[in-house]
Amino acid sequence: MIELTPAQRRELRAKAHHLNPVVTIAGNGLTPSVIAELERSLQAHELIKVRVQGAEREQRDALMNELCTTLNASPVQHIGNILVVWRERREEDKAAAEPLQKRSSKAATAKSAAAFAAAARRAALAKAASETRRPPARASSGRIRGTGRGR
């Protein structure tokens, strides 16, 4: 297991607050398929929540320890039926993920550039349409001048 300092644990708890559980462990416990899914989730997200159903507190504590030793992860928090676990991404998968991130960022840039251009065209059309509907501007002093009558 990886040991975390109290400051690291506090920061990870804050980040995990808004996460939803990605894996649910029920009556069968840590089966190979559950371990494989936890492995994939940790590799993808680093910080995950796990929901445990149908277990008492002592069983959940033992499950957390077993889970962390099996996956070489670090326990962050255990509140009720929710376990929070953290593990840094493994290097071999980081190198494989980098080209995908570069490709997706180019696609996202192209998509956002096209969206920006479309929004600019819509704004220009809306401005032109509003100018054609608007009556010509006139001086608005509140009184008509030059009539010779005082009101």
Please write out the topology.
Elements: H1 6-16, E1 21-25, H2 32-45, E2 47-52, H3 57-71, E3 74-79, E4 82-86, H4 91-133
Parallel strand pairs: 1-2
Antiparallel strand pairs: 2-4, 3-4
In short:
This protein is α+β, with helices and mostly antiparallel strands and 151 residues long.
Task: Report on this structure.
This protein has helices at residues 6-16, 32-45, 57-71, 91-133; strands at residues 21-25, 47-52, 74-79, 82-86. The protein folds into 2 domains: 6-86, 2-Layer Sandwich (Translation Initiation Factor IF3), CATH 3.30.110; 94-130. Helix content is 55%, strand content 15%. It is α+β, with helices and mostly antiparallel strands. The protein has a 4-stranded mixed beta sheet with strand order 1-2-4-3, with helices on both faces. It is elongated, with a radius of gyration of 30 Å.
Report helical residue fraction.
40-55%
Number of domains: 2
How many β strands by DSSP? 4
CATH-derived topology of the largest domain:
Translation Initiation Factor IF3
Characterize the largest beta sheet: strand count, sense, and whether it forms a barrel: 4 strands, mixed
Strands across the major sheet, in which order?
1-2-4-3
Highest-level CATH class of the largest domain: Alpha Beta
Distance between the termini: 90 Å
Query: Low-confidence stretches at least 5 residues in length (pLDDT < 50)?
Result: none
Specify the structural class.
alpha+beta
| CATH architecture descriptor name of the largest domain | 2-Layer Sandwich
Spell out the helices and strands N to C.
Answer: HEHEHEEH
CATH homologous superfamily caption of the largest domain: YhbY-like
Number of helices: 4
- Radius of gyration from the alpha-carbon trace, in angstroms: 30 Å
